[in-house]
Specification:
InterPro entries: DUF6341. This protein is mainly α and 76 residues long. It has 4 helices and no strands.
């Protein structure tokens, strides 16, 4: 049973966390390069939010937006 848990430890520490170790060592030389993945996620989230707001505006102007304040029919 000990070998099983050591195998799990090896998988996570030496294989799955290797990219994170690389980013940690990269931070010592370049902060911007180490946080590139964060900037990419922030750009994706910002563009998704802009798209969502534009779609909300389109449906609001078309009048197809259902403005019911109750969540379920049994609350009426």
């Amino acid at each position: 049973m000990k070998a099983f848990f050591e195998g799990i430890q090896y998988l996570f520490v030496n294989i799955l966390f290797a990219p994170l170790d690389f980013l940690r060592s990269l931070e010592l030389t370049s902060w911007f390069a180490a946080n590139t993945i964060n900037w990419i996620f922030m750009i994706i989230c910002a563009s998704a939010m802009v798209y969502w707001i534009k779609q909300l505006k389109i449906f609001e102007e078309a009048g197809t937006e259902k403005q019911d304040t109750t969540a379920h029919s049994f609350l009426k």
